[in-house]
């Protein structure tokens, strides 16, 4: 087995035993990048030189017996995290040459844990999309079939982990952008509770929904990185000053007697029959692990996509007002006055989907329409959150499909925004309610494409989620295939 194929916990055991060095892992990963990146296109920017220097530093730490399990491990960052001195584009032309003067909190935390950064991964522009086709830098491919999309918007991060172009990666999830690509690429992806991970230095899309989380090869690795990135940050006013448990302590515990809620509204027409069969099988697996499945109802499920596509564009239209050619990145040349400069910059700097969202959002917030759209959507959002509060009175975790279909073909949904928006029909609710969710591989289609199962839990119940996911992973024993790139 090559080093790039191993997990964080396997590599860190070997590092500590002195069997391998971080520099060897880094060269294995970059060797893999050299071999497959031309097909996968997971990265916007590679950080080869600094990675080698960081590996040497981490090696020192490990020799002295310092540094946790992430020391010396190569990880990738979605290009939405500010990285000091390293170009951060958010997948957009408007930030094509933006070099942040500071690191995001998550980046700082990973750095002090000794992680090595491989590069910045591709994404839908400003995280708006479900396929990574909305990137100014071109689409990322699904390593299982390079004619297909990896999911989005954090498609580069998911594809990089899957293809062995990093050991773990980080992304952001506003309506499913971690869990959906994790599911379509066959890796583990978690969106923590709103407020669990600091978003300082995360480029904002929709501030009441955005959350940061990891992509890993298994549930144990997810717990390891959550231990590093979770926690309060005085620089981020929505991060919550609540103690972070040791997430690893939840692994390997059983779920005997647990009640696993199956929302009846999540088994709808339009769900791919192979996905449905895999989810039904996953239900039997948790039952085999000693849990009891109970039917629950989330009665406002039907409104989730509609509410999201008011709230998210409204917040985006306001967040993206700052890109006017004055402070950041791209500025269109030759303008007669300031207004023309703004117009030209924004017309040329943003892609079609971002413009669509800005227009919808500006409309929804405009005077006379605010009450009918944004206020109404916020009220319905309250009902969606209440559905979950009620449901968790009757169950410990909820089990659903992550995505209604496996990875679709490149170009298949680019002309049909509504079809694209429906990719997140099962993931959006967790962002609206602020609760954590995780996607775990649960099988393959007959064509060999991965399928993911989603677990949801109450606010700040990441430990419970990891317990359910690790019990599921252990009992399901999904065969560990690798994409043949
Ligand atoms: N696909 C959804 C959207 O386009 C969610 C994206 C995300 O989570 N960043 O908005």
Give a brief description.
With 485 residues, the chain is of the alpha/beta class. The chain is built from 15 helices and eleven strands.
Q: What brief labels describe this structure?
A:
Amidase signature (AS) enzymes; 485 residues; eleven-stranded mixed beta sheet; alpha/beta
| CATH first level of the domain at 3-251 | Alpha Beta
Structural class: alpha/beta
CATH topology of the domain at 3-251: Amidase signature (AS) enzymes
Q: Measure the end-to-end span.
A: 16 Å
Tally of DSSP helical segments: 15
Residues in helices, as a percent range: 25-40%
For this structure, what is the CATH homologous superfamily of the domain at 3-251? Amidase signature (AS) domain
Find the count of extended strands (DSSP E, 2+ residues): 11
- CATH architecture descriptor name of the domain at 3-251: Alpha-Beta Complex
Spatial order of the strands forming the largest sheet: 1-3-2-4-6-5-10-11-9-7-8
Q: Can you tell me the overall shape?
A: globular
How much strand? 5-15%
Largest sheet: 11 strands, mixed
In terms of per-residue confidence, which ranges show pLDDT below 50 for 5 or more consecutive residues?
A: none
Tell me which ligands are bound. Answer: glutamine
Mean pLDDT: 97
Radius of gyration: 21 Å
List the helices and strands in order. Answer: HHEHEHEHEHEEHEHEHHHHEHHEEH
């Amino acid at each position: 087995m090559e080093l790039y194929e191993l997990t964080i916990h396997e590599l860190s055991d070997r590092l500590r035993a002195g069997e391998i060095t971080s520099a060897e892992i880094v060269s294995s990963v970059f060797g893999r990048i050299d071999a497959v990146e031309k097909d996968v296109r997971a990265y916007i920017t590679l950080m080869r030189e600094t990675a080698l220097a960081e590996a040497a530093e981490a090696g020192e730490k490990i020799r002295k017996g310092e540094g946790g399990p992430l020391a010396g491990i190569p990880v990738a960052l979605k290009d939405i995290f500010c990285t000091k001195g390293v170009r951060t584009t958010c997948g957009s032309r408007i930030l094509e040459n933006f070099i942040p003067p500071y690191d995001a909190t998550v980046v700082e935390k990973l750095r002090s844990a000794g992680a090595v950064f491989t590069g910045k991964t591709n994404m839908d522009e400003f995280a708006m999309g479900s396929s990574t086709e909305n990137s100014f830098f071109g689409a990322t491919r699904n390593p299982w079939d390079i004619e297909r999309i990896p999911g989005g918007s954090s498609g580069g991060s998911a594809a990089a982990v899957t293809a062995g172009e990093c050991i773990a990666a980080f992304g952001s999830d506003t309506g499913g952008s971690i869990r959906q690509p994790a599911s379509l690429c066959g890796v583990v992806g978690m969106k923590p509770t709103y407020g669990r991970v600091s978003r300082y230095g995360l480029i904002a899309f929709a501030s009441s929904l955005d959350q940061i989380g990891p992509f890993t090869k298994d549930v144990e690795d997810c717990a390891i990185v959550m231990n590093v990135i979770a926690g309060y940050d005085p620089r981020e006013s929505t991060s919550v000053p609540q103690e972070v448990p040791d997430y690893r302590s939840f692994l390997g515990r059983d779920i005997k007697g647990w009640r696993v809620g199956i929302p009846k509204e999540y088994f709808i027409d339009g769900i791919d029959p192979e996905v449905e069969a895999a989810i039904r099988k996953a239900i039997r697996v948790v039952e085999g692990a000693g849990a009891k499945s109970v039917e629950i109802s989330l009665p406002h499920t039907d409104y989730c996509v509609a509410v999201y596509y008011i709230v998210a564009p409204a917040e985006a239209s306001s967040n993206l007002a700052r890109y006017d050619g004055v402070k950041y990145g791209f500025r269109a040349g030759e303008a007669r006055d300031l207004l023309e400069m703004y117009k030209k910059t924004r017309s040329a700097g943003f892609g079609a989907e971002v413009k669509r969202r800005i227009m919808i959002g500006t409309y929804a917030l405009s005077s006379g329409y605010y009450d009918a759209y944004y206020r109404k959507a916020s009220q319905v959002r309250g009902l969606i959150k209440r559905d979950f509060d009620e449901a968790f009175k009757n169950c410990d975790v909820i089990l659903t499909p992550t995505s209604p279909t496996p990875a679709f073909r490149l170009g298949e949904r680019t002309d049909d925004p509504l079809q694209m928006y429906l990719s997140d029909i099962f993931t959006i609710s967790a962002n609206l309610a602020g609760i954590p969710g995780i996607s775990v591989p649960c099988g393959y289609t007959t064509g060999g494409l991965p399928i993911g199962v989603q677990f949801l839990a109450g606010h700040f119940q990441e430990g419970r989620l990891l317990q359910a996911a690790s019990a599921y992973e252990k009992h399901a024993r999904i065969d560990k295939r690798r994409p043949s790139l």
